[in-house]
Automatic annotation (TrEMBL):
Organism of origin: Chitinophaga polysaccharea
Domain HTH luxR-type, residue spans: 126-184
Superkingdom in the source lineage: Bacteria
Name used for this protein in its record: RNA polymerase sigma-70 factor (ECF subfamily)
A GO molecular-function annotation: sigma factor activity
Length: 186
């Protein structure tokens, strides 16, 4: 007889998933994929990029099963989605021609000079961060390392990694609110 996982609470599903229960993960997937997609699409205005965000977030959830304490699954997934959207946008800006950027970003970046200015400004803001904070942010965003990997590499706690990333994002949010206030760093 097959168990109906749709009736389990999020906390129970997370615990079961931590014990390598694929069915619990599948229940989480079907419970949250649409919400994650809408959140990502609202920011990116691209079906493909939004699908990539959902894939990255849910793959990360499975890969970190049993290693990450999740107090609130919706909050965890929303935060992971925000980071993934930021990562998608940061990948677009340096290499994508203006015509290919999603409509919402294109309105902000009408010409190459604006893109160049934003890239330089972002680098300047990151240089002004405390060294450890800057390194953590670069490992996270440029090297794509997980919080756990960064913590092990720098011999600090995962909580410290989260605090450094939050600090960096807060600084960028303040500095770039006029450019991306609803897209990137909400």
């Amino acid at each position: 007889m097959m168990t109906d996982y749709s009736h389990f609470a999020d906390e129970e599903l997370v615990q079961m998933m931590g014990k390598d229960d694929h069915n619990a993960f599948t229940a989480i997937y079907y419970r949250y994929w649409k919400r994650l997609y809408v959140l990502a699409y609202d920011r990116l205005r691209s079906r493909e990029l939004a699908e990539d965000v959902v894939q990255d977030v849910l793959t990360g959830l499975w890969q970190r099963r049993g290693h990450t304490i999740i107090r609130s699954l919706p909050a965890y997934l929303a935060t992971a989605s925000r980071y993934a959207v930021f990562t998608q946008l940061s990948k677009l800006i340096p290499v994508t021609p203006v015509e290919a950027l999603p409509e919402a970003v294109q309105a902000v970046t009408d010409d190459a000079a604006t893109i160049h200015f934003l890239q330089q400004s972002m680098q300047e803001q990151l240089k002004q961060l405390p060294e450890k904070c800057r390194i953590v942010f670069e490992y996270s965003r440029e090297k794509g390392m997980s919080n756990k990997e960064i913590a092990a590499e720098l011999q600090i706690s995962e909580k410290a990694v989260e605090k450094h990333i939050t600090k960096a994002l807060q600084r960028l949010r303040v500095q770039f609110r006029n450019y991306f206030h609803t897209l990137v760093l909400w």
